[in-house]
Amino acid sequence: MKKVFILATSLLVTVTQIANAQKVVFKIKGSDTCLPLIQKGAEKYKKKNSEANISVTGGGSGVGIAALLDGTTDMAMASRKMKFDEKAKLQESKGAFKEVIFARDALSVVVNPANKVNRLTREQLEGIFTGKIKNWKEVGGDDMPIVAYSRESSSGTFEFFKESVLKGKNYGPSILLMPATGAIIQSVSQTKGAIGYVGHAYVNKSVKALEVSYDKGKNYIAPSLENAKNGSYPIVRPLYLYYLTKSEKTVAPFVNYMLSPEGQELVLEVGYIPLK
Prior knowledge:
Layout: H1 2-22, E1 24-30, H2 35-48, E2 52-57, H3 61-70, E3 75-78, H4 84-94, E4 97-106, E5 108-111, E6 119-121, H5 122-130, E7 147-151, H6 156-164, E8 176-178, H7 181-190, E9 194-198, E10 208-209, E11 211-213, H8 225-229, E12 236-244, H9 248-259, H10 261-270
Parallel strand pairs: 1-2, 1-3, 6-11, 7-8, 7-9
Antiparallel strand pairs: 3-12, 4-12, 5-9, 5-10
Helix pairs in contact: 2-10, 3-4, 9-10
């Protein structure tokens, strides 16, 4: 009887060990732009792979990269390329890492639907977000103050907008910095004189996306998926996943899923641009 009990206990321990060995647990953190897509991808992936337990949280590209640096996440999602000093620190403290582009995004400038302005040039956007243009009448709108919303400096979207639209110039002191992309949508939808910028997947009926010109007003292009894919919309950026090479065995199956035809179909479904 004692031998049977020992055998049963040993068998239970072995089965538990096998179950634990099959369980794949990892964390993804970072860009609010990437968040809705990676969350959806994780949900779909877990349905196909019941042993996977994936936690996905936002906070901004810089937050995700910092978490990868301090070891509190297994993968960082970013709406900007990792900076040189971030790469150097990561390589020095954690070793080799991988950078994967998994989708593209048409960064959209949005205003309140009650605003009669439908289009702006890059130069006008620069004037608004650097604080030089303060009233909508200066760009063909009604006589009302401009209330400009931006993401915080830890956001990859903040960095990309500054580089692509402001051409490296600093944001004006009156620009209101928001902790999340959803907060920008909510604020713009509730404020008639508001303007902000968000990832394409966040655009909904509560705001109006503007046509943008990068050739001083000769051509204005709407931020549609079609225009982003054919290259006519000018504010398009890659979306990244970063992970340590030593974690590849754990995270690569999910990365491969996002790059697969099914994953790329999901990219389109959520509102971003597939790689092909």
